[in-house]
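To the wet lab folks,

You asked to see what we're planning to order before we commit. Fair enough. Below is the target structure as tokens, and below that is the sequence we designed to fit it. If anything looks off to you, flag it before the synthesis order goes out.
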């Protein structure tokens, strides 16, 4: 990828906050243009041209294959609903492929008004001379919009409103990762048996190990493979050393200091160290995140974990409450003893309120996170209660940084544009052409030797920022 200039040519209108954010004018003036399909040949262009239509096609195929299921459950009403939903999805695919204007949502779902308001803001940004269309609008917006339209096709056709067109792919991803899940479950049980005797150096080493397992688990992303099987088949613990050179930004020391300092301060009975994990993919990645969360509790580095997932099926493999509960049940009922032990402990954590799952609708909005305090102030206030927030995966990174054409060496804090509810850390394998916070020249060096270095999941970052950091 060609190097980017932070002050890259963009009209004054393009520099305005696309979601109606509240940054100061002097900050806005430095904001580069959004990644977009209007840049022919870019990763965004190729995604909109090839991958997104294929995902819609797969959704149509899934509905076709479940005709008998819909008939068995709902009779002829179910079959007619399926046909209508397929028609809406086929229309969506045509709009996407022919760069038609983005349309308002009509399903009356609680978030529809916010989506339609966002569309109005996008249109105001473009002006009256052109429409907000699939290739002209920001990539982040239209990609999120596609998944919301898939959900709309089902919402408009009861009784199949709750059908998850991505469920089969998610289930397959979990089942095909059994060997890796057994390996990390077995490892965790051994760690938990001895963790109370760990010295601080041992605690730190184990946190680093499990943090990296969670990090590389992010490679299992079905939205990138367009729903094609993308599971973790081997024991990830055996590959961590060889993968370390591929971590382009490694702020583990800051993560450790954040957690251990909170633990040291937690001397009173009322003190509570809270860690939040903004989840990404279900399947192996979710299990890796749960392994990390388990260790944080048993090591007393954290007292409670808040998981944040999606309220509707999203980006093929993103975690919903249904996926979260299903995973805990699969672990608990597994024939493998170590997996079952994990599942029992995890369900107990949920029952005791040590683990809390939340799914605020903002996570399936198209907004950058710098808009959160305005659009979802209740969620922002909730995150401010955290001692440390982990943001998993590529989509969360794109929203953290606004999905813009930043220069590679722009500081992470600059790209966050004021989003600092609490100390936060991005755990991400690179699968979109945006990356900030690199050492000067590193991005250009990688681009020269590996043109696709930002989009294959080959590289990763552990990138930390804190409002208290000097």
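Sequence we intend to order:
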């Amino acid at each position: 990828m060609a190097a980017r200039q932070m002050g890259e040519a963009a009209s004054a209108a393009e520099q305005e906050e696309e979601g109606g954010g509240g940054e100061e004018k002097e900050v806005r003036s430095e904001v580069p243009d959004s990644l977009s399909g209007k840049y022919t040949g870019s990763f965004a262009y190729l995604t909109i041209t090839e991958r997104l239509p294929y995902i819609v096609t797969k959704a149509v195929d899934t509905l076709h294959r479940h005709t008998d299921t819909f008939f068995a459950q709902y009779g002829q009403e179910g079959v007619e609903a399926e046909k209508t939903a397929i028609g809406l999805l086929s229309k969506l695919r045509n709009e996407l492929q022919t760069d038609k204007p983005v349309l308002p949502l009509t399903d009356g779902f609680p978030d529809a008004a916010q989506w339609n308001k966002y569309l109005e803001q996008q249109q105001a940004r473009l002006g009256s001379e052109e429409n907000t269309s699939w290739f002209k609008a920001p990539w982040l917006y239209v990609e999120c919009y596609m998944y919301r339209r898939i959900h709309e096709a089902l919402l408009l056709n009861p009784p199949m409103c709750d059908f998850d067109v991505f469920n089969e792919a998610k289930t397959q991803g979990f089942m095909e990762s059994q060997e890796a899940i057994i390996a990390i479950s077995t490892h965790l049980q051994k760690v938990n048996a001895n963790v109370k005797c760990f010295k601080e150096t041992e605690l730190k080493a184990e946190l680093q190990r499990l943090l990296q397992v969670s990090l590389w688990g992010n490679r299992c992303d079905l939205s990138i493979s367009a729903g094609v099987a993308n599971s973790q088949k081997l024991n990830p613990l055996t590959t961590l050393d060889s993968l370390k050179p591929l971590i382009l930004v490694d702020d583990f020391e800051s993560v450790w200091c954040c957690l251990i300092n909170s633990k040291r301060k937690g001397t009173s009975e009322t003190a509570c160290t809270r860690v939040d994990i903004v989840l990404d993919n279900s399947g192996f990645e979710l299990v890796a995140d749960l392994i990390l969360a388990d260790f944080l509790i048993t090591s007393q580095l954290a007292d409670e974990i808040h998981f944040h997932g999606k309220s509707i099926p999203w980006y093929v493999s993103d975690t919903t409450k249904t996926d979260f509960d299903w995973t805990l049940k699969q672990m608990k009922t597994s024939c493998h003893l170590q997996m079952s032990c994990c599942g029992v402990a995890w369900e107990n954590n949920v029952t005791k309120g040590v683990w809390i799952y939340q799914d605020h609708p903002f996570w399936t909005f198209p907004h950058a996170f710098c808009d959160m305090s305005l659009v979802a102030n209740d969620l922002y206030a909730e995150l401010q209660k955290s001692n440390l927030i982990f943001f998993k995966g590529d989509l969360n990174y794109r929203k953290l940084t606004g999905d813009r054409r930043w220069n590679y060496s722009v500081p992470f804090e600059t790209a966050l544009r004021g989003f600092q509810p609490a100390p936060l850390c991005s755990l991400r394998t690179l699968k979109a052409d945006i990356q900030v916070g690199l050492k000067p020249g590193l991005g250009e060096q990688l681009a020269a030797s590996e043109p696709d270095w930002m989009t294959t999941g080959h590289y990763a970052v552990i990138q930390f920022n804190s409002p208290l950091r000097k």
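Structural context that might help your review: The first strand starts at residue 247 and ends at 250. DSSP finds 20 helices and seven strands in the chain.

Thanks,
Computational group
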